[in-house]
Amino acid sequence: MTPLTSAELNYLIFRHLNESGYTHSAFAFEYEAGISESAIDGNAVPPGALVTFIQKGIEYLGKEVKPNNGNLDANGNFQFRHPIELIPKDVNELQKIINDKKESIQKDNSKGKEKVDAENGQGSDHGLAAKRENEPYRETIEIENKTANGKEKEIPFDDITDANHNEDEINGRLEENEADGGPLPMDICASTASSSSAIPNGDVTVLHGHTSEVFTCAWNPAGSLLASGAGDSTARIWTMDKPSVPNMQNGPSNVVLRHFMETPNGESKDVTTLDWNVEGTLLATGSNDGRVRMWSEHGDFITSLNEHNGPVFSLKWNKKGDFLLSGSRDRTVIVWDVKMAERKQHFKFHSATVLDVDWRSNFSFATCSSDSMIYVCKVGVDRPLKTFAGHQGEVNAIKWDPTGSLLASCSDDFTAKIWTMKEDNCLINLNEHTKEIYTVRWSPTGTGTDNPNRQLVLASASFDSTIKLWDVEAGRILDTLYGHRDAVYSVAFSPNGEYLASGSLDKCVHVWSVKEARIVKSYRGEDGIFEVCWNNKGDKIAACFANNVVCVFDFHM
User: Fold this and answer.
1) What values do phi and psi take at 506, rounded to 5?
2) DSSP per residue, 194-227
3) Rounded average pLDDT over 15-37
């Protein structure tokens, strides 16, 4: 294995500082370490790379010192509970600690067996009783070993049957351990999905065509078209009007939307965001070259809007379809007059990258940034209508509720917040997550929706590998969804609000029952997932994968 160079380590540290919101420290470190002069391709480094790298090293060290004798796992269940315990010790010292513990456990087990034999006249059931008593901890070790990095140890999701019991048994075990002050649920169960919930291959269509990771996807609201954008400088429009076909290599048909700068060398740029208008007749795409491009539903190029001076990270159409909103790394937001194909208004309030935008109405909208600020603006007005300051880190996403009265935001400061135009400070602070929150979504339920009799729910997805469902009106958490083993990048509610799809870097797509807070369908791919979305009928789910494919799942219960 090629050793990690100091330049590579410096880049990982720089990325970690940036991703954690330490902007000033990252800037100083970038200058002192000469990051800008590095030849490292930043697009090839996934988010959270430094932490992942350290975790893999600790896992490897833990496996290196693990005893070969299986008795310890079955009866002793001894393991280091905190990774930090591994770091200051060398392998020999760790091996000695484990061997001493093993001998002590074996002595205790031997004494216990003698006592049971003396009392009951037999000893054949003692081993089974001990095994059952320690079952939750044994399962943890077995599942972690099976899913550890390395292809020879990795097993398909469909094969995880013996390691996973049904949801009722697992949920009962989680409640018992939580009540007893035991390990957190994530420490006990690697996956709450049973084999019966696995999406069959016959309901999966794998779309091949992109040659780099697929960052974003969106269903046409008026039909069976699916748009995807990737790091290969293309977007694609797929026609999904036929039943799913497993591992389809040559179809369904798709149109390639090429994104190249008008330069002699044809420099290519990643497609970072895209959005359909409400009628489904126009598709807008944003890319790293700072341009917003307009396409017809058939993939015909219409125009390029060229006012931004940095990558475009967010795009949103208003409901009327006459304005398009874009946010960029150049710290600005632009409202575009679509009919005239020109800039309507340029907003320059933020002091750092604009990460997300969302319309409140056809004329007013909110913006958020890595400067930790949120602004509510209106077309034709030069100053913000409202300024929301309260987050202590980058604000990653914002979403208005269906009525446009409540604004949800989430941040690297581990919190989600609810804002209203009637107050300057946040109305509700949701602080149950233990790591950065990447996105939030409102359910299409409650007042102002097609499902007015269902409760309005907010979902938040975090790097702590959990999803939380909130009753915002009551200001309380409804459920925490445990099932992923890595950062959750995307969540999406079904059109009827009954189900929630989630995608994670753990390669899994889960579909949850919102009412029962359990996994009802699940699929394990070959790489991390950046985005999931439902079609307007609620019978198909699309997911973007880092291994250059888009998967479409037929959903039926």
Assistant:
1) -80, 5
2) -GGGBPPGGGEEEE---SS-EEEEEE-TTSSEEE
3) 77
